[in-house]
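If you are new to this repository, start here. Below is one unmodified record pulled from the training split, so you can see the exact layout before writing a loader.
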Amino acid sequence: MQDIVVARPTPPPSDPNMVRPTVSSGVVATSATNAVRTMFPALAEMTVPGYSGMLVETLEGNVVYESNSSALFNPASNTKTATAFAVFKSLGPEYRFATNVYTDGSIDRGTGTLNGNLYVSGKDPIFGFEHAVSIASELNRMGIYRIAGDLIVTDNFSLNFSTSPVNSARGLLLAMDASQRSAAATRVWLNYLAYSGRSSTTTGTPSVSVAGSSYVQGIPSTLQFLFTHESAPLKDILKAMMCFSNNFLSERLGDVIGGPYAVARFVQLNANISPVELSLQTASGLGYNRVSPNAMMKLLRAFRAELARYRMTFADVMPVAGLDRGTLEGRFNNDWVAGSVVGKTGTLGVTDSGVSALSGEINTKNGKLLFVIFNQRGGVQRFRAFQNSFVVTVQSLFGGPESLGYTPPSLDARLATSRITYGRSAGY
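And here is the target side for that same chain:
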């Protein structure tokens, strides 16, 4: 069969930022003509809303549908796919973030007092109340119930997705002390015990009081190392970030490898993408990022190949529509199509006059397809309705949807695999 080409003239964007790159690198935006290339009349006849770029390919690289694939669009939270790929490839799926605990004092086991200060250093992006109480529990196990000095954290420490190390330090102090611990912190701790299977092995209520105050400062090199709190594996943190499109997690993970410009350069080099077709200002997708459908397709292929090295698939780090909690929970969720689409959403209500994106993998009875849909300049709800209809139409042309055979795991249980170790971690 010959491809069907439908030319749809598109007026130039009213907003000059619409297809402008976000870095000063001599990048020139590609103009769009809305020409459609496809082998299926049913797809050629679909009305595409807004200013849009789309690409659907078989795993072998054959084009199923293509429109404006070289033009630049705001990918919104599809940017998180770039961040996830860069961090995953750099650190590996089993990487754990270390939060190290030190002291400059000595332990009086007779009174249960640490005569000195307690120092906490780490950049675990998902460190929360349950981990604060876990540190108190480990201190209790060492015979420490009271700190005579101060609680000191480094400026990269964060508690409960807070961007303020001062507030995080204060929150850690309160959560460690049972007499000052909030009901929310207690509830999170008890849930953590249940999800981790430790309820039956944990006795008593962990508590460590601090006589002094909490501070943020650097850590001396002469401290005595006590232990390390290690986060859940990176693969589970990525799954949570992608399912709920968590901007804080994405920005912090991007910072691990140098920020958004480093993420962009890493993706360009490792997915063979020209800087003309991918430039990032943020690691989360907020603001004015620019990516072409072609570039996103190359990214999906590179990420898929990297996951395969560990016998993993997109479902291990992205939400499966209709099954996983989060941004795809209520989409593609009927009995016919649920469990056949895995990918990443993207939404910006005001930026670029409204943006909605969806990209990932479609499973059909006649094989898997990779797809990218970038919709811009219009209403988000209308864009989502179109995306849903388009994906289902594509599936019907390939024999209908086919479930991935995926059973959603408990994200709470996956994230409850943090642990205490005594092997001294490198650095602070």
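Two things worth knowing about this chain: Residues 380-397 form the longest helix (18 residues). The chain has two domains: 4-93+236-411, 98-231.
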